[in-house]
Amino acid sequence: MKKLLLIVATAVGALAIQKQMKAKQAENKLWAEATDTPAN
Predict the structure, then answer these.
(1) Considering the entire predicted model, what is its pTM?
(2) DSSP-based helix, strand, coil % in the chain, nearest 5
(3) How does pLDDT run along the chain (40 residues), one tens digit per residue?
């Protein structure tokens, strides 16, 4: 039972980290797009 709980907790933690990383990547992409100099 403790192993199952540990596996579930690890999976939830990994999903939270993945979500946070995707959000940061999206924010960085948006920031880069907003601050890019326009190409002529």
Answers:
(1) 0.70
(2) 85, 0, 15
(3) 999 999 999 999 999 999 999 999 999 999 999 998 776 6
